[in-house]
Write a structure and sequence with these properties.
By secondary structure, this protein is an alpha+beta fold. It is built from 16 helices and 14 strands. The protein has helices at about 40-55, 95-115, 120-125, 125-140, 145-155, 160-185, 190-200, 205-225, 225-230, 235, 255, 265-270, 280-285, 305-315, 330-340, 375-395, and strands spanning about 75, 80-85, 90, 245-250, 325-330, 400-405, 415, 420-430, 435-445, 450, 460-465, 470-480, 490-500, 505-515. The chain is elongated. The chain starts with about 40 loop residues before the first helix and ends in a 6-residue tail after the last strand.
Length: about 525
């Protein structure tokens, strides 16, 4: 039997005790990104202009569909349950086209991420685009990074109050324009604009504008990088899309380390020196406020502004560009093995260079063919097949449809002459913005004749009816069959619809019921 002093005492560290527990949320630390210049920054300007132009201008484009359809090129007509996209018109039962486009977008996002990393986040994500736009306003009013830091730390003066108020007013105008542009996709844009300013628009329009104004202003102006870090799920998902051949923004420490601002002194002392001068230019321009030299991080949106900043410094120092660059993990690992002599030493940049200071032929460099690998081809094939399938379906789809619903009670009626009559609700769907004369014909039921309730036509095997453009026409149709032509309790027949002008047709197979005694 042991006493208390003979029991070994273990000292584990609890991760959630009151003494060591970390807060679930840290207060936001303001980021003041410096304006960058270079090829990637110019590319971001172009993308921002194109995406904002598409968003704001698309509702104002016109497309002539004739006198019976709206002339707005892109319109989601909720009231009439239509979606118009230039020459394409989508009905509610054709929503699978929209679903197919969403699947294509998802596969396309996988394809882009697996090849060039988070390019969507860095260039075309709405959050990134609007933050860029808000930063343009902020720099124009308050100045570049140092001026904004000084203004933020300074006391509240009249000048500071005017600058801040001007900035936020312009942000609110941009946010309101964003919400306003969105509702124009759901109604005729010129008409809705007039109704908005005269106070006659529907309440839902004002509510939508208010909600989108608030969210755009908050996300783009106040939260910024926090949306990407805490709210967006994609940073956590995209890691599964990457492999050793995916392009990502990378700090090439195999040539940058050891970093120092006193290269001559260090070289004189006989120590290796990397190309990085520890100027922190890459950190200053980062809209997420991270240091790419710390490696891949969840917050990095691969906007490549750090590449522009670093290339500018390398140009000033007369050194080769690419200290920070788009690179693949396989190339990075190969160069690290070279710079560390197979892992036998710390990074020595002289191992990747020749005596004349140029990079060794053994240094791995990116080539476009490296991203074309089986995974890329699989994604491309999936994306292409879905797109071709949707396109084929779109080009071959019927624009004339018929649907028939048999009366439930009674299922049949025996007339005074012994003939049997069945009632049907026939729905004729004209899916083009033009009026049509549709001929309905009964087939496969010997001796059958049709009569239409409310239409002054003699009973016959076919009849013609006018169908309005882009409309569904419902008819009450009675089909009568003489008693001597009844050959079973249930017989199938077809109702065929045809537009003689376009030669477009469709048919529906229905059932004719009769009493068992009529056999």
């Amino acid at each position: 039997m042991l006493d208390n002093t003979q029991i070994e005492r273990i000292e584990p560290t609890t991760v959630n005790s009151a003494k060591v527990r970390q807060p679930m949320y840290a207060a936001r630390r303001k980021i003041f990104p410096k304006r960058a210049s270079g090829s990637f920054r110019r590319f971001k300007w172009i993308v921002m202009a194109i995406t904002l132009g598409i968003y704001y201008l698309t509702p104002w484009l016109r497309w002539d569909r004739g006198p019976f359809a709206p002339d707005q090129a892109v319109l989601l007509d909720v009231a009439n349950r239509r979606f118009y996209f230039f020459f394409v018109e989508i009905w509610p039962q054709e929503f699978y086209y929209v679903a197919g486009l969403l699947v294509m977008a998802g596969v396309g996002l996988f394809l882009i991420t697996s090849t060039v990393g988070r390019a969507w986040c860095g260039y075309t994500c709405p959050q990134t685009v609007w933050v860029d736009l808000f930063l343009v306003v902020e720099r124009a009013i308050e100045g570049d990074r140092n001026a904004r830091i000084k203004l933020d730390a300074g006391p509240w003066t009249t000048r500071k109050l005017v600058l801040r108020a001007s900035k936020h007013v312009i942000w609110l105008v941009i946010a309101a324009a964003t919400g306003g542009a969105w509702i124009f996709y759901f109604a005729d844009a010129p008409t809705l604009l007039g109704e908005l300013f005269t106070g006659t628009a529907a309440p839902v329009a004002y509510i939508t504008v208010a909600v989108l104004t608030a969210t755009t202003y908050t996300f783009g102006g106040l939260m910024r990088e926090q949306v990407c870090t805490y709210m967006c799920p994609w940073p956590r998902i995209q890691a599964a899309m990457l492999d050793e051949s995916s392009l990502t923004v990378t700090y090439n420490d195999w040539r940058g380390e050891p970093r120092t601002r006193h290269a001559k002194k260090v070289l004189a002392a006989g120590h290796p020196v990397g190309d990085c001068v520890d100027c922190n230019a890459c950190v200053a321009v980062c809209p997420m406020g991270i240091d790419i030299r710390d490696g891949q991080q969840l917050e990095c949106i691969t906007c490549a502004l750090c590449i522009d900043a670093c290339d500018g410094v390398m140009d000033k120092l007369g050194k080769a560009r690419g200290l920070i660059s788009y690179a693949t993990l396989s190339d990075y690992n190969a160069n690290m093995i070279l710079a560390t002599a197979g892992g036998a030493s710390s990074v020595n940049p002289s191992l990747v260079r020749t005596d004349d200071g140029l990079f060794s032929d053994r240094v791995a460099h990116f080539h476009i063919r490296k991203i074309f690998r089986p995974r890329t081809y699989v994604y491309m094939a999936m994306w292409s097949l879905i797109g071709l399938g949707l396109l084929f379906s779109l080009l071959t789809r019927d624009r004339l449809e018929i649907n028939v619903l048999h009366d439930r009670n009674p299922q049949f009626v025996t007339l005074s002459d012994g003939s049997i009559r069945n009632g049907y609700t026939v729905k004729l769907l004209n899916m083009i913005p033009e009026p049509r004369t549709i001929v309905v014909t009964v087939g496969g039921l010997a001796g059958a004749e049709m009569s239409v309730v409310g239409v002054d036509l003699p009973a016959a095997r076919s009849f013609a009816v006018q169908v309005e453009p882009d409309r569904l026409k419902m008819l009450k149709v009675f089909v009568r069959v003489p008693a001597d032509q009844i050959h079973g309790e249930a017989q199938t027949f077809t109702l065929r619809v045809e537009d003689k002008a376009s030669f477009e047709s469709n048919e529906y197979t229905a059932t004719f019921n009769a009493p068992e005694i009529a056999r």
